């Protein structure tokens, strides 16, 4: 009887849905309750209206890289800066980004093409003119190890991964000691000496530092010393570490520091610990931590780290930039203050490109820089064929849960995305918001029916009979409320789907995995789908 009631309600909704033009879908509110009734902070507006940090008036507003870009590792290379992030199950992965002012960032391309399973916090460094990325991964899904890839040019080509056989370790941080030898620090906080070429170990994993402990009554996830990043400055080695757990309570994650004259210690705790920590759920950025220090173009100093955006954990951990100051006693302090407000940009930098267009006619290969398969098999790219009519993806599995959807990171609070899907053979395809195989929402189309997915499962009471092999489908995500529309005449008129979905709870604290909600497109069944004219725009 419950299913019958649902069907009747849905039929009523569908019957009352008129064909619509492609004008604005949702009216934007005059105020935003998440900011005390005031309008949201004023970011700059970039490509397709996407928010960007640079406000065009000498100030910036965090994040500097929006959307799912956690565990930032940054390299200053002359006047250029390069940064990359954890890429988890996305392949190609480890996308390198470039900047000349620390605020405007644009992707260079992916460095890792061979699947290694999930990729957590990596370290990007340069030694003797060669670039290295150290990668914690568990290709077999069991024991973690640290791998290395290298390139003579940042653009690549990058080498295949080399297993350093450092078992059970994550979060590598590379440093050259006062002895001229190379070391990796890892979670724990432990140390391993590397060979001179950086592609094998030259010693055991050994304890390096017992991190500073916060008071026991602080509300944190767990101790979890991780993310060690090292810097040599003014005769000292500085060790910057995350403790408190990377998710869980918003007040958990934090940044601490220690220093030593020798890479072998002894290390002394920074008297200003913790240097960064979310104090209250009222703040705009939650779970702040995993920091790296970097010198700006004009000689000032900065800290790059990640955090969740208040109210938008669904976007994943995003990358923030905060100024620091060196103190008279040789330590440093964070001085960004209220990160809901704009900050002066780093001195001396020259603004370059910011972000990337997400709209895609599929005429060029954007795998890695934009698109990726979620948790792909080694031969996943064999499903793909590109021609003048669009991007063809061979079907796999029976639903989004087992089809390794194509996914795209987004960084806006509200946006629209639409794409034309053509069904070839007995395939089905659809448009999703996809976290993982246990957490997604969306609509799917077969040659005879429309399927609805919510709570990571099909809602059979909403199945609609509709014979068609070509459909244009639009998804609007407005502050975590998702609306679908579809058109059978190329976007001239639209039908409103009868179910709106609220997705604010689809994030790591519920489903694990440290991921984000991405735009997803799936291809399942026998046959293939052909994608054309993907369009994206942010909603102000």
From TrEMBL:
Positions of the record's site feature: Important for catalytic activity, responsible for pKa modulation of the active site Glu and correct orientation of both the proton donor and substrate: 171
Region (Disordered): 31-62, 337-359
Coiled coil regions, renumbered to chain: none
Keywords for the protein's UniProt record, in alphabetical order: Glycosidase, Hydrolase
Gene3D superfamilies associated with the record: 2.60.120.200, Glycosyl hydrolase domain, family 43
Pfam families per record: GH43_C2, Glyco_hydro_43
Beta-xylosidase C-terminal Concanavalin A-like domain sequence ranges: 359-527
A single GO molecular function term of this UniProt record: hydrolase activity, hydrolyzing O-glycosyl compounds
Protein name in UniProt: Family 43 glycosylhydrolase
Similarity comment text for this entry: Belongs to the glycosyl hydrolase 43 family.
Biased composition (Basic and acidic residues): 48-57
GO BP terms: carbohydrate metabolic process
Superkingdom classification of source: Bacteria
């Amino acid at each position: 009887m419950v299913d019958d009631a649902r069907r009747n309600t849905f039929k009523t909704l569908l019957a009352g849905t008129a064909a619509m033009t492609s004008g604005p879908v949702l009216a934007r509110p005059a105020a935003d309750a998440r900011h005390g009734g005031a309008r949201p902070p004023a970011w700059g507006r970039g490509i397709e209206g996407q928010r960007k940090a640079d406000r065009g008036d000498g100030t910036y507003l965090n994040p500097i890289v929006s959307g799912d870009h956690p565990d930032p590792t940054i390299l200053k290379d002359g006047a250029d800066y390069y940064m990359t992030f954890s890429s988890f199950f996305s392949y190609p992965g480890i996308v390198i980004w470039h900047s000349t002012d620390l605020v405007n960032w644009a992707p260079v391309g992916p460095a890792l093409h061979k699947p290694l399973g999930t990729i957590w916090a990596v370290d990007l460094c340069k030694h003797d003119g060669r670039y290295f990325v150290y990668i914690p991964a568990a290709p077999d899904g069991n024991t973690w190890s640290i791998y290395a890839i290298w390139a003579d040019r940042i653009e690549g080509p990058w080498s295949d991964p080399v297993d350093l056989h450092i078992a059970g370790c994550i979060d590598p941080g590379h440093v050259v000691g006062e002895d001229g030898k190379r070391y990796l620090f890892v979670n724990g906080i432990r140390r391993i000496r590397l060979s001179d070429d950086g592609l094998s170990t030259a010693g055991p994993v050994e304890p390096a530092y017992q991190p500073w402990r916060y008071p026991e009554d602080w509300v944190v996830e767990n101790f979890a010393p991780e993310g060690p990043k090292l810097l040599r400055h003014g005769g000292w080695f500085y060790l910057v570490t995350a403790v408190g757990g990377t998710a869980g309570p918003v007040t958990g994650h934090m940044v601490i520091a220690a220093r030593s004259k020798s890479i072998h210690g002894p290390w002394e705790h920074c008297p200003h610990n913790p240097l960064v920590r979310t104090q209250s759920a009222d703040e705009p950025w939650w779970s702040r931590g995993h920091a790296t220090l970097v010198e700006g173009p004009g000689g000032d100093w900065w800290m790059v780290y990640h955090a969740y955006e208040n109210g938008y954990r669904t976007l994943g951990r995003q990358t923030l930039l905060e100024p620091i100051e060196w103190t008279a006693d040789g330590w440093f302090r964070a001085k960004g203050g209220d990160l809901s407000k704009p900050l002066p940009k780093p001195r001396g930098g020259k603004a370059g490109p910011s972000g990337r267009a997400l709209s895609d006619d599929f005429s060029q290969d954007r795998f890695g820089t934009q698109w990726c398969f979620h948790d792909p098999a080694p031969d996943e790219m064999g499903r793909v064929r590109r021609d003048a009519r669009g991007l063809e993806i061979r079907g796999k599995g029976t639903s989004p849960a087992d089809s390794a959807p194509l996914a795209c990171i987004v960084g806006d609070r509200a946006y629209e995305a639409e794409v034309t899907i053509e069904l070839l053979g007995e395939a089905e395809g659809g448009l999703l918001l996809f976290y993982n195989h246990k957490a997604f929402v969306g609509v799917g189309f077969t040659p005879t029916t429309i399927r609805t997915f919510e709570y990571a499962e099909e809602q059979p009471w909403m199945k609609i009979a509709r014979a068609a092999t070509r459909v244009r489908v639009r998804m609007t995500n407005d502050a975590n409320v998702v609306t679908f529309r579809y058109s059978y005449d190329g976007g001239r008129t639209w039908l409103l789907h009868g179910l709106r979905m609220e997705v604010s709870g689809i994030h790591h604290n519920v489903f694990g995995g440290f991921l984000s909600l991405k735009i997803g497109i799936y291809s399942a069944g026998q046959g293939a789908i052909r994608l054309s004219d993907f369009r994206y725009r942010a909603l102000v």
